[in-house]
Amino acid sequence: MNTKFDLKSARTRAGLTQKDVASKMKISINSYLKYEKGKLVFRVDQAWDFSKIVNIPFDQIIFFNPEYTSSVHLQPA
């Protein structure tokens, strides 16, 4: 069984600060905080970069809150 890490636990396991990760990802610390708090969700390329930065396999990181729901509503044709 693989251990799963949320963004914060992956970051702290790697010994990095929020500022470190934001800098390595070339985003503002405020943006990174929104990702870590679950207010934003990484694009796939960002998620891949994050997994490389923290040195944890991509499939062992939880990149979104399971409670997250889309605000997009499909309209019938």
UniProtKB/TrEMBL annotation:
SMART domains: HTH_XRE. CDD domains: HTH_XRE. It comes from the Bacteria. InterPro entries: Cro/C1-type_HTH (IPR001387), Lambda_DNA-bd_dom_sf (IPR010982). Residues 7-61 form the HTH cro/C1-type domain. This is HTH cro/C1-type domain-containing protein. The lineage of its organism: Bacteria, Bacillati, Bacillota, Bacilli, Lactobacillales.
